[in-house]
Amino acid sequence: MTGSDMIIAPSMLAADFARLAEEAQAVRGAADWLHLDMMDNHFVPNLTVGLPVVQSLRAATSIPLDCHLMIEDPARWAPGYAEAGAYNVSIHAEATDDPAAVARDVKAAGALAGLAIDRDTPLDPYLEILPEFDLLLIMTIKAGFGGQKFLPELLEKVRQARRSAASGHLDLRIEVDGGISADTIEAAAEAGADAFVAGTAVYGADDPAAAVRNLRKIAESARS
Ligand code: DX5
Ligand code: ZN
Fold first, then answer.
1. Of 21, 31, 43, 71, which has fewest CB within 10 angstroms of its CB?
2. What separation in angstroms does the CA of 138 have from each of 20, 117, 151, 201?
C-alpha cells in the first residue's frame, strides 16, 4: 500500500506472462494492487490464467491481488480465489443470477467482494445490492481484451454509482477498467472513481513504476 486514497492497479494482462513475478516486482512500492484478468473463453472469447497462477503470484509478491473474474459460473469458482489469497475478487453481474450470494461466499472465504459491470449493462438493476459489495468495477471498454479505446460515455455509470453510494452512506470503492491512461484518468477520477486499472499504460511504458506514479499524480490532482 502506498498511503494514497487512490488505488492504482496495473493489469498484468499487458505484462509478460512468462515473467509475472518480475513484472510484479517492477511496480513494487508504486502500485497499490495488481489486477489479474481471469478469462475463460466462454464468458469472454479470450483465455488467460486461473487459480494456479494466483496461488503462485501470491507467494511471489506482497502486493494485494485484485482478481477480475470474466468467467461463467462465478458461484463455483470465486470463493477459491479468496482462499488462494486474493485481496479482492470481482465477479461479473452478467455471469450469475445471484451476485449478492457470491459476494457473501467470497467474503466468508476471506477476500473483499467486487461487482463488475460490462459495457452494455445498465447499473440500475444492481443499485440495491451494492451494500453487499466492497467494490464496484465499471468497465470503460467491452470486457475481454486489453489495449482498447476508453469509452468516456461509460463514466455516467461511475457518476451514478458515486451518487448512489453517497446517498446510501456506502463505503464503496469504484474501480474503472479499460483504456485508463494519462489522457483518460483525470475524467475517471472527476466522475468519482477511486481505483484505476491500467494495463497498456503501465506495462507498455519503459518504466512501469514511473507510469504508475504519474497516473496517481493525475488522479489525485483531479480530486483535490
Ligand atoms: C479487459 C481487462 C482489463 C485490461 C485493461 O477485459 O479487464 O483489465 O487489462 O487493459 P488496458 O489498460 O490496456 O485497457
Ligand atoms: Zn480487468
1. 21
2. 25, 5, 11, 18
Centroid of ligand 1 to alpha carbon of 99 (angstroms) = 22
pTM, full prediction: 0.98
pLDDT tens, residue order, the chain (224 aa) = 455 799 999 999 999 999 999 999 999 999 999 999 999 999 999 999 999 999 999 999 999 999 999 999 999 999 999 999 999 999 999 999 999 999 999 999 999 999 999 999 999 999 999 999 999 999 999 999 999 999 999 999 999 999 999 999 999 999 999 999 999 999 999 999 999 999 999 999 999 999 999 999 999 999 87
C-alpha cell at 200: 497498456
Decide whether any atom of ligand 1 lies within 6 Å of the 99 Cβ: no
37 is known as an active-site residue: yes
Tell me if residue 177 is catalytic.
yes
Contacts of 189 (CB under 8 A, 6+ apart): 6, 196, 218, 219, 220, 222, 223
- Asked whether residue 160 is domain-assigned, the answer is no
Residue 57 counted as domain residue: yes
Residue range(s) defining the domain that contains residue 121: 1-141+168-177+191-200
Task: Domain count for the chain, please give it.
Answer: 1
* CB 74 less than 6 A from any atom of ligand 1: no
Is residue 103 in some structural domain?
yes
Q: Is the CB of 37 under 6 A from ligand 1?
A: yes
DSSP strand pairing (34-39 vs 173-177): unpaired
CATH number of the domain where residue 63 is located:
3.20.20.70
